[in-house]
Amino acid sequence: MKIAKVIVDVPTMQTNTPYSYRIPNGLETQLKRGMRVVVPFGNGNRKVEGFVVDIEETDAKQSPQLKEIDRTMDLVPVLNDELIKLSKWLADKTYSFQISCLLTMLPNAMKAKYATYVKAIGPIDDEDISKKFKASDMIPFDSEHFDGPEMGKLAKLRKANKIKVVYKVQNEAKKKQETAVVNQINDFDGTQKQIRKNATAQLNLLEVLQKNPKQPLVQSHLVKDLGISNSAIKSFEKKNWLKKIQVEKYRDPYKHEIKVDQPKKLTKDQEDAVKEINRSIDSHQNDTYLLEGVTGSGKTEVYLQTIQRALDLKETALMLVPEISLTPQMVNRVKNRFGNQVAVIHSGLSTGEKYDEWRRINSGDARVVVGARSAVFAPLDNIGIIILDEEHDTSYKQDDNPRYHTRDVAIWRGKYHHCPVVLGSATPSLESRARAGKGVYKFLRLPKRINQKHLPEVSIVDMTQEEETHDGIFSGELLKAIDQRIDKNEQVVLMLNRRGFSSFLMCRDCGYVLKCPNCDISLTLHMDSHTMKCHYCGFEEPIPKYCPHCHSKNIRYFGTGTEKVEKQLHELLPKARVVRMDVDTTRKKGSHEKILHEFGDHHFDILLGTQMIAKGLDFPNVTLVGVLNADTGLDLPDFRSSERTFDLLTQVSGRAGRADKDGEVIIQTYNPENYVIQLAKHQDYEAFYQKEMQLRHLADYSPYFFTIKVSISSLNEKQAASEAYDVANYLKGSLNNKTIILGPTPRPIARMKRRYYFQIIIKYKRDLKLNQSLKHVLQVSQKEVRKGLRIGIDPEPVSFM
Ligand SMILES: Nc1ncnc2c1ncn2[C@@H]1O[C@H](COP(=O)(O)OP(=O)(O)OP(=O)(O)O)[C@@H](O)[C@H]1O
Ligand SMILES: [Zn+2]
Ligand SMILES: [Zn+2]
Questions:
Q1: Which residue ranges does the record assign to the Helicase ATP-binding domain (predicted)?
Q2: Ligand nearest to the CA of 451
Q3: Dmax over Cα atoms in the chain, in whole Å?
Q4: Ligand 3 mean position to 512 CA, how many Å?
Q5: Where are the alpha helices (DSSP H) in 79-214?
Q6: N or C: which end of the chain has fewer CB within 10 A?
Q7: pLDDT of the residue at 590
Q8: Last residue of some domain: 135, 168, 201?
Q9: Range with the lowest mean pLDDT among 344-348, 413-417, 655-659, 682-686?
């Protein structure tokens, strides 16, 4: 007898293991590992969903009491063996439930709230089934409409391509048609001779056709994105050099189907890196590389050429980038090189678009995947290379269950596929840099910018010395520099660092920031009530008149929003054309792309934005970068706040002077002597690394120690506190004596949304009992969990707030 092992969608400790179910007649040959099923569960036999993670042969006598699978939700597996295996590892590694991991891997469109249908797409020879399709070609795929044996027939019909499964998404767009052109030219050289030398529009069109001789090219993209004239297309059509066809409009958010970019000739450093990585690809070696390259050193070209190598070997490629730098610029660079083979996954896509992309990957149509964090689970087969760009970025860590780090998952998949993993950054995480130093990762460096360009000159402006003008936003020096750049017809990027803050009060004499006495977080100014409020605990006090630290009267509103800065700019430099990029101006779909496009076309002189603009942008005409407030991230209660500030300043500085013209950076700060600011001035990552490693060593922090955060919360403060003490005591008794256990303490933000939080920080080097002990904690706290306690285990937390 065959049984299925099913992970059910009941996320508790007790159910975090596969349950056995009998496979009903008719499904025996159809049911596959990786399909979703509906099964009866518990005493009441309520129906729950689950994933088949294994199918086994057993002796019927041994398991007479087994319940039977109700039905399948899929006709083909939605997860392959690799991903099922990965989910088990991930659950273990992140102390979460395997079901959460399995669900994390699927696009939302396939999650329960969306209806599943079967759709007839060919003649159906089975009488029973074909009768059902008489009324409609789409029928809900459930037990009301199909019984067990019929489900088996459906699977056969799907194999024969007579039906398909459709997940109906609420906002699914109707399919539309659009006009495309297809090349008809065989002899390109001969054709070129027939075109006048000064007919550039026609020559451009010819070039695009030559690069894409077989592919339909959507006319509107040719015109809008490549500047090819409609009249050129018309005259080509008349001469039968191309023909027009109608194609199905695809929900491609970037609408870029045309390859226009050729590989660049590599510099010596790039070539060394590419050779080394390609060697691993060719020999299927699972090496992890750290590619440390200064800003503008051409890391992207290294990625593109190694991806090409994997494709040449008929393998696929996975490229991960932080959400924030998943800009149209980056996406277009990959799409321009690899065309339609690229699938893009990020949070800006609609559910339907994400599902489309997922399906293209699952079916093997898309062979290069570019995406943010969750794309690390893309169902690619046969991966030849995995790239993690800006590997230090904190958005790679998921805050919620399962609390995985994208880098760990990428490395796991690299091992599975025997392929190299490339971690790239101008400012690698200390952890990765340390591993490269020890030889765990192979170290590749691009120490110079492309074309012998040097890094931009950085100067620091001490804002405590500035006269009280311009609301403390602009120093005289920065204003003058902006003015000069505009006169020279060059462009400026201005960053307002808003990390961790909205609007706060700061003393202009000593730099003191007014903080909440309970939460260790800065208070936010509320003009309506004329008070300072804590956004987390609700603490409130009147706006002070004197600095509590140095008693200066010079205490003022700071950390203004980009909107206010924009207004200031208009007053101070009326001629400047400013475009603002922040959460407000990019909320609408496509607006991000539009702003960057218009800035690139020099419709604006100044791009003003938050951290959003620090990464990945490549505008040749930008020669000045200004950082309005370098300090705001430095004070956060987090041992990584220096590292983050250094990264941010280095990344944003790197936006200046990337092409022919020299770049300049001006950083305004209230802490000009701080080592982070000083080292950022020299853009000296290696010096920063050495210095910061010393500090981490002294304080027993990562990468010298691993960290785990255990957080315990409840609406009832007493319950949370007493459980936290119990857990800490248990851990102190069970873990080895070199492991450091801090706490329990109320979390820096102790109370959030009415729950009281306590946290325990575990710092360890090697502790064989750790995993077991933490699982034990999860087990024994079950009773309290039923009474409303929550307990979370976060390995390598990126936030301690
Ligand atoms: N071999 C090359 N020859 C000519 N130009 C190149 C070459 N490699 C890269 N470039 C160009 O140099 C510029 C900088 O490269 P790229 O954006 O890849 O750098 P990066 O290291 O990714 O930078 P950042 O970390 O700042 O984003 C780009 O405009 C790119 O097209
Ligand atoms: Zn507070
Ligand atoms: Zn002061």
A1: 280-446
A2: 1
A3: 89
A4: 5
A5: 81-94, 98-104, 127-132, 148-159, 188-193, 200-211
A6: N
A7: 75
A8: 168
A9: 344-348
